[in-house]
Every structure is written in C-alpha cells, then in structure tokens.
Amino acid sequence: MDLVEKATRAGGRHGVVWTLEGSGDLNANLVRFGSGRGVGEHMNDEVEVVFVGVSGSGIVMVDGEEHALSAGKLVFAPRGVRRSTLGVSEDFSYLTVHRRRGPLGISPSP
C-alpha cells in the first residue's frame, strides 16, 4: 500500500484518513493534518505508540520533549506519557501503530 498516495487522496480532510482492517492484534492509523492543526496533548496509560512520518513535516511532543517528524522518521511514545502532534506543513501525515485497544477517535485540535 502506498501511504503517501492515501494521504494525498484525502485532500482537505483532517484526522484519521485510513485505518488498518482485519488485525486482531495491531491498530494502525494514517493521520493527516495541515499547518497549525493536530492532536491536542493527552495521556494514554493503555498502549505505547510508534509515529512514522509519511509526508510533510510536523512535531510530536512526548512528555514535554519536541520531536520533528517527517517522511521516514520515527518517534516512540511510551505508555503513560503526555503526547501531542502539530502540523508544520500543509501536507503533514503520519502513521501510528500500537497494540489494538477499544475504539479511538482523533479530532483536530482547535
């Protein structure tokens, strides 16, 4: 699957634009935001998350530490830490991968 193509085809949509179907063990989401948009700071005690840059550029904050995320880069967020994302470019997209849990809703930050 071409993740860059999936993100590009999402056009102006923000948030989750693709989700892995059919796995009982893994959850993967392709998430897309424009400049100045992202997922607000939150903490999750359930799962560790890997963020993989797909296109554009953005920032992943992990427990107060800023990590630049762009195509081919990876950021790891352990369970129990505060984290957030913010698009720097208009075409910021990334893949999140973690152990499957209950339903997840990601919305753009205000």
Describe the structure.
The chain has 110 residues and is mainly beta. It has one domain: Jelly Rolls. The chain contains one helix and nine strands. The strands form two sheets. A five-stranded antiparallel sheet has the order 1-2-9-4-7. The mean pLDDT is 90.
Detail the topology: elements first, then pairings.
Elements: H1 3-9, E1 15-19, E2 26-33, E3 42-43, E4 49-55, E5 57-62, E6 65-70, E7 74-77, E8 82-87, E9 92-99
Antiparallel strand pairs: 1-2, 2-9, 3-8, 4-7, 4-9, 5-6, 5-8
Notable traits:
1 helix, 110 residues, four-stranded antiparallel beta sheet, globular, 6% helix, mainly beta, five-stranded antiparallel beta sheet, Jelly Rolls, single chain, 9 strands
Strand share of the residues? Answer: over 45%
CATH architecture: Sandwich
Low-confidence stretches: none
CATH class: Mainly Beta
Number of strands: 9
Please provide a brief summary of the model:
The protein is mainly β and 110 residues long. It is built from one helix and nine strands, in the order H-E-E-E-E-E-E-E-E-E.
